[in-house]
Amino acid sequence: MIDFHCHLDLYPDPSAVLDGIDARGTYVLAVTTTPKAWRGTTKLVGDRKRVRVALGLHPEVVAQRHQEVALLCGLLPETRYVGEIGLDGSPAHRQSLELQVKVFERILSECSRLGGRLMSIHSRGAASRVLDALDLHPGAGTPILHWFSGTTRELERAVSLGCWFSIGPAMLRSGRGRELASAMPLDRVLTETDAPFTRVGDDPLMPWQAYDCLAGLESVRGIDRIQLGKLVEDNLRRVVQAQPALFPA
Fold first, then answer.
1. How far is CA 148 from CA 49, 74, 79, 157, 162, in A?
2. I need a labelling partner for 159 at 20 to 30 A (CA). Which of 114, 120, 131, 137 fits?
3. Helix (H) or strand (E) holding 28
């Protein structure tokens, strides 16, 4: 099982979640919302072989914490994984969009200078602006668009730019999410939860529930969910080849 976008540090009891991850053999990319959270989450994860921590500065907090981009760039040499980064053009955050763009492009530029990183990218309400920035920084690394919600044309452009996509159960609950998932190249799809923000009833999704989305993907792609699970695992191996430090083969 693979959860390629999970806010591990934001669970009420992250240590218990880590125990569950170990027990089930789940591969997890734990994204962070601020660079200050990265060290604490890295310490929490310790030497677990299947969990890696990504260095992030979430666009939703850029208005208040944009000065932390300098800290993020200073920490980049210590990690191969960056996220959650990106842009948010939704009404609540649209006012800070131009500042978000400056921060995002600075991160991409530094990633490029350091030889590229694996990046988990937020693009809600700003897919075209995200793709513009990626187009300007082709050496930044491997972009994985988490919970992509752009237009069909934006999806086509993302594919042409070499983007990957992480999809989860919450995304496939909507007709729009299923429509986009039906058009994504399956050889560039990974699974995620975006937990603990995503829930089943009153309970947050757990990393080992990322594969719950395979039933929805099966219905829109006509491919058995067991085959889809194997495909996602193959995709992870291919990302590993591009970023060898990510997970053991």
1. 28, 28, 24, 12, 14
2. 114
3. strand 27-30
How far apart are alpha carbons 18 and 45 in whole angstroms?
7
User: CA distances (Å), 89 to each of 98, 123, 125, 237, in order?
Assistant: 10, 8, 4, 33
Q: Is the peptide bond before 218 cis (omega within 30 degrees of 0)?
A: no
The residues near 222 (Cβ < 8 Å, ≥ 6 apart) are none
Nearest to 100 by CA among 126, 136, 71: 126
**pTM for this entry:** 0.95
Q: What is the pLDDT of residue 242?
A: 67
Contact (Cβ atoms closer than 8 angstroms) between residue 81 and residue 32: no
Q: Give pLDDT < 70 ranges for the chain.
A: 242-249
Nearest to 239 by CA among 97, 170, 109, 144: 144
Q: Kindly state the tokens that stand for 229.
A: 């699970």
CA separation for the pair 34, 66 (Å, rounded): 10
Q: Where are the alpha helices (DSSP H) in 76-123?
A: 97-113
Percent of the chain's residues with pLDDT above 90: 93
